[in-house]
Amino acid sequence: AAGGGWRCGRGADGSALRWCITGALCASFLGLGMSIAVLGPTFPNLAANVRKNVSDIYYIFVGRSLGYLGGSVVGGVLFDCMNATLLLALSMLGTTAGLYAIPWCKESLLLTILMSVIGGSMGILDTGGNVLALNTWGSEAGPHLQALHFSFAAGAFLAPILAKLALGGSESEELAGAEKTNQSVLKSVPTASAASSTPAPKDHQDEEFLWSYIIIGTYILFTAIFFFVLYSKGSSARDKSKASAQKGRLAKYHWPLVGLLFLFFLFYVGAEVTYGSYVFTYAMIFAEMTESEAAALNSVFWGTFAVCRGAAIFGAAFLSPSTMIVMSLLCSAASSSALAFFAHYRALLWVGTAVYGASMATVFPSGISWIEQYTVVEGKSASLFVVGGALGEMCIPAAVGYLQGRFHHVPVITYAAFATSLMTVLLFPVMYKLANAPQENDLKEVSDSETREALLSNSRLTEEEEDEEDVREWNDADFEVIEMNDKLKNSLTDISSRIPGDSPAEVSLQPHLDNPPVVAGDSPGRQNGNVDWEKSE
Q1: Which superfamily, per CATH, for 251-439?
Q2: Which terminus of the chain is less hemmed in, N or C, by CB atoms within 10 Å?
Q3: DSSP assignment, residue 178?
């Protein structure tokens, strides 16, 4: 059952189980990064394998992107309906099947279909992995999300190296393009167009490049098997009762908040991919750098990106997600401003590029951790975040490339970095305001508490008034008693004055009663006799 994993997570072995889930997710994201990044270095080999020019099969990237978007949406829906570990295991089996089939694919249409299948599986994994980490760790998910996305960057870095080794040390490929995104499909159109004039690979290279796909596919297969083992143990971290209880934790503006974070990730991922894709060209054309210097600048961007993403695993244990986002946005705004307006200073270009890469490292995982503090992040919500990032990666680099082609003398890339940074800086305060808006239940609780306070205050006032009234009544009673005693004293004084031989002091010692008590056994006559006897004396 889906809830069994969470209940197991609360037992004695819960901590070990949750760490196993995190390890499996990191391994899967390592494979995700390798699967995405391996396409760039092997793209000429794939073109030769289907007997096409490199410039004629650009549509395989479109197929993979569409598959990725579809997989993200479908995965978000399925994740709310079925076991999480089973869904991730099946998605990785789909990726494995596609990677195994690609080297033997001889038709461009079939290659596009395979790329779409792989993209869909990757979309499911990207969406489900983030939500599973949140459900497993809850408020402690920050460092684990950072570890997931660091694993992706590590896989994207390793894949081109693996492909180069499989090709037997062929010509050097641009490795930095492998790290272009943190969570979705890489666009390799610049690489493809640059390689269109490259001669077709040799036959032995056609045979050797397939080993990179086989190795990556086998690695992902073992990871899928591990997820099947977790599923057989009942591990899912998806407790239905917990999920239903979380419904009451939805933010007042849940869907507007999700929509704004969708736009936030669109601009952020688009900016990251755009600068990583075009910084090499910018350095050579506008900064007049040599090819080696431009490559070094590109490496600085992705190097600081990877290092800061790794450091964020430890930083997330001490800093809140909102603090990390604010720090990243401030660094992004400062560095993009320097790149847009002061890049003609060579030192500022290097420093600005390094800081800009570092500021991009933690935004995506920190954003998911941040919104989880205010509302429930389910499969559908997470799929929108992934789709937003994927659309930003597809649209913004294409728009920048188009504008750069129209305006040759304008550094569109740096202005785009500044504009996207400005958008994210403006969006986050709005999201923060919506996230902290009080819910109706909170307002009702406040109203009820105020009502209770007022009732308690009124009751205390009523009790005090009653006490004061009692005091007044007792005082009046005391005055009445004093007045009555004075009247009795005066009356007795008058009586004593009419009785000869008795002094007022003696009379005052007698009972002050109009009718003296009747003693048992005495008759009225005896009493009268005693009075007469007293008088005769």
Answers
A1: MFS general substrate transporter like domains (1.20.1250.20)
A2: C
A3: G
